[in-house]
Amino acid sequence: MPSVTPDWSFEREHWRRGYFRVAGVDEAGRGAWAGPVTVAAVILPGSAQEYPFRDSKQLSATQREAFAAEVRRVAVAWAVEHAWPDEIERLNILGATHAAAARALARLNPAPQALVTDYLRLRTPLPLLAPPKADALSYSVAAASLLAKTERDRVMTELDREHPGYGFAAHKGYGAPAHRAALERLGVSPVHRRGYAPIARLLQAGLFND
Fold first, then answer.
1. Which of 121, 136, 158 is the last residue of a domain?
2. Residue 3 falls within a domain, yes or no?
3. Angle at which helices 177-186 and 197-204 pack, to 10 degrees?
4. Is the residue at 176 inside a domain?
5. For the segment 41-61, what is each residue's pLDDT rounded down to a tens digit?
6. In this structure, is the dihedral angle defined by the CA atoms of residues 85, 144, 94 and 136, taken in order, positive or negative?
7. Could you give the CA distance from residue 86 to residue 43 in angstroms, rounded to a whole number?
8. pLDDT < 50 stretches in the chain
9. Binding site annotation covers 86?
């Protein structure tokens, strides 16, 4: 199945209304059992030129790193923020994702005038388009997906060194069989999301590794 090529369709809807600084917003790690959920916000130049950026899930790790560097080079503004497991436990995953998005958007300079997100209906006074699959359809959201994914992968590789044995560098905290086996062997670490059902069951069984 061929990959989808992003374009400027959603940004143009904002441009037609006079909003030219459009930030794309996307997250990585929302479904993982460990580590942060990571949100990026990116404003690209509003020149309607073509970019090689794609949804990060369509690319290899090497391609993602190269394209993420290009996003940082060409962006008018960009920011990445994390919500860690304690915030996820306090706010729930959706609330924590919204909080990280708000922090990322607040760091953009110049500030955005409108937003496009990947089906993330943020509570914001700014004009917002939140279509599904926007990371594959919008250049701005694809750019944000690249920054969120590469930054979260970097964090999970660091956590793998700090908490060896779980395999975070390989599975990035998702519920892979190797992750399940490591949890059974080592117990729950401080960077696991304790409100998630598979983790909560292990804690109830007394399997923790603080």
1. 158
2. no
3. 20
4. yes
5. 999 997 778 998 988 888 999
6. negative
7. 29
8. 1-2
9. no
Q: Is residue 34 helix, strand or coil?
A: strand
- C-alpha span between 125 and 187 (Å, rounded): 43
Residues 91 and 132 in one domain: yes
The SS3 assignment for 31 reads coil
Q: Which two tokens stand for residue 47?
A: 């020149």
Residue 189 inside a domain? The answer is: yes
Q: What is the pLDDT of residue 31?
A: 96
Q: Does the annotation list 26 as a binding residue?
A: yes
Residue reference for tokens 């996820």: 88
User: Quick check: is 154 in a domain?
Assistant: yes
Tell me how far the alpha carbon of residue 27 is from its chain's centroid: 2
Domain limits at 182?
160-204
> Across all residues in the chain, what is the average pLDDT?
95
Enter the tokens of residue 122.
Answer: 């943020």
Pure H helices in 109-138: 134-137
CATH of residue 65's domain is 3.30.420.10
Q: pTM of this prediction? A: 0.95
